[in-house]
Amino acid sequence: MVRSIVIPHDIRRPARVCELPDLGAFQTAVDGNLEPLEIPTLDVTVYMNEGARREHQPLNVRASALWWYCSAVPTEYPLILGDVVLSGNGQHFDEDGGDVPVLVERFLGTSSILVQATRRGDQRTWLDTMARFDNVFDAAVWCSLFRATMGGASRFRIVGETSGTDLLAGLRASGGELLW
Question: Are residues 87 and 167 in the same domain?
């Protein structure tokens, strides 16, 4: 059994944590053969249907948003299609391998999210933006858009609005890429 997160392409269906017992369960979840995409900063592998492009499956905006936010080169694999499964790859957070890291489960459950930014020339002081979201996926898209628009002069992060803590802060210490 591998503890995983299934992210449907249909945004009306919630992402859910589930136990997948074998390869067949993974293939059923993505509706086809598996194509892996590593996201080292999250210590996860995204499994998608390898035939999704050929079959013209719909865009998975939530999985694509995570890829764009967490990848050093987001355009390397710009669109993720169809339903996907996130599972741990055992490199940093999950020594047993396979299970999705608890950190990922935690930030998927946060319901009030704020995007913060630094000013040009002041990389230490984080300021609230007006960008507030009810899910990490939309916040990730906005961080990606801010970064593309403003370049390297400012940095951006996703924080839980009630806690005020960086939802992905633990990733920087894990050996993954610096997110912003």
Answer: no
List the domain range (segments joined by +) for residue 159: 113-172
**DSSP characters over the chain:** -EEEEEE-SSTTSPPEEEEE-SHHHHHHHHTSSEEEEEEGGGTEEEEEETTTTTTTPPB-HHHHHHHHHH-SSGGGS---BS-EEEEE-SSSS-TTSBSPPHHHHHHHT--SEEEEEEETTEEEEEEEEEEEESSHHHHHHHHHHHHHHHGGGS-EEEEETTT--BTTHHHHTTTS----
Give the orientation angle of helix 61-70 with respect to helix 136-150, to 10 degrees: 50
Identify the domain boundary among 100, 133, 151.
100
Q: Which residue ranges of the chain lie beneath pLDDT 70?
A: 72-75, 78, 90-98, 103, 105-107, 109-110, 152-153, 167-180
